[in-house]
Amino acid sequence: MKNIKSILFYTALIFGFLTVSVLSVYNWFSNGTILYYWDTLLPFSSNYASNFPYSWYAINFPGLVGGGFSWSLYILPIAFLESLFSNVSISQVIIYVGLIFTSIVNFYLLLSYFIKTIFNKTRALAHFVAILFSLMYALNLYTFYYAYYLFNPDAYIIAFLPLNMLALLHVFPFNQNKEIKRFKLWLFIFFVSLFLMSPGFTTYIFFIQYLGWIFIYLLFCLLISKEKTNPKLLKSFLFFILIILVNLWWFFPAFLGISSSYEAQRFTTDTTAYIEPGSKNSNLLNSLRLIGSAMMTNNPFSWFSLYIDRNPFNFILFFFPFLILFLVYKIRNLLNKNIVLFILLMFLVSLFIVKLGNPPRADITIWLFKHIPFFDAFRDAQHKAGLFYAFSYFVLSFAGFYLLINYLSEKKKKVLKYLSFIFLIIGFVIVTGPFFLFRNDNIKKIDYEYNGKRYLFSAKTQIPKEYYDLKKILEKECTGETTIVIPRTSAITNAVWEKYGTSYIGQDVLSHFVNCNLISQKVGENNPDAFTNAPYVLLRNKDFTSFKNFLLQNNVSLVLIRKDNVPFYYTSWFYSDPKKTITEIKKDPDFQKLYENDFFNLYKLKTGTAKNFGFSVAKNIIYTNSSLTTAIDYAILSKTIGAQSGNLVFNTNDSLKKYSKSINQYVSIGNCVGCVQISPKSLLEENSQPSALRSIKDFLKKYFKFLNKNETIDTKISKNLIYSNYEFNKLLLSIEDKKTDESRRNIISYKGYINEVLNLLKEYKGSFFDRNQKLLEANNFLTAQNNNLVNVSSSVKDSNLRTLLNFLVIFQNNELNYVNKNIWQTNKKDKIYRLRLDIAKSGNYECNINLFTQGVFPSDVYLGETSPTSINENHLFKRGSYPISVKYTTEKIADFPSVRLSSIKEIELGNLTKGSYTLSFDAQDIKTPLFIVLTNKKININNFDNEILQKLGINVSYSYFLPGQFSEKIYKKDYHIDPFSNEKYFLYFVVPNLYADSIEDQVINNLTIEKNIEENDIVFSCTITPRVTSEEEPAVKKINNILYEVTLPENYSSKFLLFNQSFNKDWKAYPKNSKKPLPHFLSGYSNAWDISNISEREITVVFSRQDLIIKNIFISAFAFLIVLAVFLKIKK
Amino acid sequence: MDKIFNLKNQFWFSWYLLILYYFILRAIFGIDYFVIYSFSIFMIILRLEFEKIALIFFTISMMAYIFATPTEANHYMSFVFGFLLLSVLKHFYFVFKENLKV
Fold first, then answer.
1. Dihedral angle at the C-alpha atoms of A287, A291, A297, A299, nearest 10 degrees?
2. Is the ipTM of this complex over 0.90?
């Protein structure tokens, strides 16, 4: 009877959990929709899954290293479900419901174990409370934001961590007096649950934390063990090794690609930039209630304010931290307090990271971010440390609640007991609120206005049938070809399908949907991305001929135009208007329309070459001095080539020396002199004090003269400038500390170094450009120091010291005068753009000026520094460096003799293009402070502050004007703008409310906005016209993404084989019957091999890493079994 | 010394009166770390358990959250965190100490 009862109970329980799981997500998938938003990764076809096991992703052209094997358990089942049901929605809902259900069940099992092992007495009530806490663990604010509403495979960890911990508690129990029952079963459960958690470990910081907590657990067990230490130590050690081995199948490939993926995901070099000191969202008050996650802050859900603001609604959530405190208070009443201590430690450490820049001791967090390698992987700490935090939070609060109820029962305080239950129920409703209470409005939507039309991006969406129609056509055509998609997307994209009332914003659907080589989404590697941006730059520059040439050069034979994309700040990157591209394509007879529907146009470039999967033999071998790191570098190079395909590009001195006999085209691109302005702040900060190593070296050199090598004058100049900066920083510190005598000493030593620099500059006999480089260096340092000193000296109260500082400013100005007289650099005042042209080989060059901005008009080009001579298109250059000057004029985009001020004055500037603009006006007549705001959206001046803060997709540049701030009579300020499409810009002058009454009759005189020049706006390049050989293309057979068989044409004469996927040293080419790989090198962004010394025509090209990865799977599995056998033997 | 250590058992040093004393100190000296640290040290000298001090600061924090500002409440919550950490470390110490004896 008892058995039947318990069977009925558990059946009802499972049914109940399943019902709750379905209800929690039903709204997202009703009507056959999917949930798709921002970073969600959802394979839309089995093709994506079939590409997944390869360590090279070729879907996004030009390809990148793949290391996300751990996602196999997510990608493969979802692809299987999709092919089973032919429905993405059903497969997504099964994954969601499955994971939520598993989370609830596993947490309930863990709590049931706790009830048995840590409490004196157990009651049915305990199971009811355990059910509530299990539901809260699976469906709370953390899981809602970080696991489900934009799906993240972390959900796998959330689902299986409780079971894994439960198994660990059985395998390595704290209470070692008890015999371990079913040891092998629990060991099996431990490793299976660990394997099932692996999709979540792709966020590597979760794996590191997991290893850390397991290590601490084993150490804790070891330290309190009453067994002999050595066997126990060996057991713990072997167990830890087993954990590593069971994860090696995915971790090894991830490790091979970790540095590039880490760099690609890092958005700043300052690791502490992710810490927002005193952030309200993650302070203890909010973190202790699981609210205020980073994703809540920009979420427009209607219930947002209920959680984030100070509100009686969320006050009840303080009940949970109280329960944890109560648990600690009554910890002695527990049967096994060691488990609780371990979880408490997990809770406190995780909370310390979760709160990030908030007290207490945020300085420790900052130190950790600065000095511990990879610690900044904890950026968005609510997410990254929150996983173990939320786990420990609910375990501890459950234990606390159960203890509280027991305590109140013992004390017979019925009212308080009932009140506790009421608090728990209310807390339960609030914690699970996003899933149930607010289920009618828990879908992410972005309301967005573009060109006066409103658009809505919604996370609940459905892929329209037009995509499926396109897939059929495109996949037939694209084999062996590359397809360019217009417009280009950033890491994410959007689409609005008005006829169906649906839309999306997130990862590019096309690249997860169509099995083709698409240029659409950025791959996250600088050089390949720079290359694929080049055609978009050419389109934006309205240079359709060069765009077409680019396609021909690189065998890009298919052009897919997307008509469902809306330009949006976060999703547009190198935007080009699809309508304008269609118009241009229609005019060109070489393009043939293959297909059209409401959302796409597909064209084929008729002159495209055969389907050769990106392989070709080199017909044109180019050397360029360009660094090839930006889209403009590639665009310029492309323009000098014409329509020729099969171009091998060298751009290093080593390759120039090695292959000079093979090179048949030289492309020299002028580098602007004086365009890049180093920020004074960073220049001073980066050279503020000598490094420890430098100090030791200097110390040794002082006493051991033989260490002092003969330094050249240019090294001495640079060193003296850096030393002068050390002294200058010491001076600033002594001024700050009001140490006058020390300041005097620092001034003397600083002046000593600067005088030395000037003397060295005067006697320096280097080449023109070398000497000029030193003058530029001196100018940068002196200007930065001078600006800083002017700012500091005004606040010095000691009159003697201020006088000294004023003399120092005069001294600096004199030195700067000498430098400026002799320096040769771009002169924006007289509008002369100056550049250095390096010629690698003597010859007759054809020179051109290309513009990559609008509103700049070059007129004459001169050669020489002192008495320049005009040069025309063709010029005979000898090997060497040449100073080139380009005279130019710029366009004034606004010119108003006078503008009457009002509280907010709006000026429409029209459509502006990317670049720098100088705003200037007469400053002497303006008596009130002004905020100057430049935006790419018209702002409603009646609701100015709110709109500027809240309007989505707005690009704002701020500055301010204070009367008397400038000694010059004219206010001048440069603004750099980067429109994401061709949108209109507006300038606003805002008078602060305090001064609103005093603006009558005030006018801004001579207001102008003029285009300003920046590096790469004018590109001067010279090239020797090549003699190109004609060659047949090789025949290529693709075995899979990482293996190709190439057959070179008969009687080929080329010395190089090219492959247009991103360069990686693991791409290897082997001639048939040879195990020795061919010499492999970089051609621009891609791969090239030297085939001059082979006799065979058959070559196998392979991404060698795959072989290593497969071997690793077998070796780690074998090693796991051996270590497991040893572990089990010791256990006996 | 024993007299001082036993003070915590007296009515005048019960937890709710300690909270009251703190708010009196706060009214006199204002919100100052000096006051909070002195109050904490005073409770440690009384040999109040760390977990009890954490609960006292939690109550103060809740009162400050309702009647004063969340910023002030957050300061007290830092002390809750601190004393909770001390309490956990104390428990670890005794666990290891017990084990060493064996």
1. 160
2. yes
